[in-house]
């Protein structure tokens, strides 16, 4: 029986969260064993933490909606969100999921006073001198398709750059874009708060 392996990567902008396909896939990020796959997804235009493994049980647990684990996102948004907008994000907003309106679960949100320490994005976001931008940290316990982007747009502050920074205590702090680190199961489960 093959041994379970666990890789943490900083998925670059522009890379698809899959191995199949001709271009712009995870094959370009690292040389992974043939039996691993990403747990969940990050959109092509999002970047950050992605867990890649062949542990089917862990994959099932992390993707099960009844297992509410915290995901931390850093979003660079257009404009400077108001206290009201941050409050709306925390209470939940209505977004479209698969053609139906969905009210997001309660979240934690905060406007960051200083820009987070992250590697530069390639290509950088389009800079507009006339429109300020800012960073918010959003902690969710669910992961609907393009949820953070839909949430910030719903309160009037569209996302320009989106980075999944952490899942529970597992983070990409200190990672470079495209960096891959292998981790042992015990450490990983401890960081994910799975006993």
From TrEMBL:
<dbReference type="InterPro" id="IPR000748">
    <property type="entry name" value="PsdUridine_synth_RsuA/RluB/E/F"/>
</dbReference>
<keyword id="KW-0413">Isomerase</keyword>
<dbReference type="InterPro" id="IPR050343">
    <property type="entry name" value="RsuA_PseudoU_synthase"/>
</dbReference>
<dbReference type="InterPro" id="IPR042092">
    <property type="entry name" value="PsdUridine_s_RsuA/RluB/E/F_cat"/>
</dbReference>
<feature type="domain" description="Pseudouridine synthase RsuA/RluA-like">
    <location>
        <begin position="6"/>
        <end position="154"/>
    </location>
</feature>
<dbReference type="InterPro" id="IPR020103">
    <property type="entry name" value="PsdUridine_synth_cat_dom_sf"/>
</dbReference>
<dbReference type="InterPro" id="IPR006145">
    <property type="entry name" value="PsdUridine_synth_RsuA/RluA"/>
</dbReference>
<dbReference type="InterPro" id="IPR020094">
    <property type="entry name" value="TruA/RsuA/RluB/E/F_N"/>
</dbReference>
<comment type="similarity">
    <text>Belongs to the pseudouridine synthase RsuA family.</text>
</comment>
<dbReference type="Pfam" id="PF00849">
    <property type="entry name" value="PseudoU_synth_2"/>
</dbReference>
<protein>
    <recommendedName>
        <fullName>Pseudouridine synthase</fullName>
        <ecNumber>5.4.99.-</ecNumber>
    </recommendedName>
</protein>
<dbReference type="InterPro" id="IPR018496">
    <property type="entry name" value="PsdUridine_synth_RsuA/RluB_CS"/>
</dbReference>
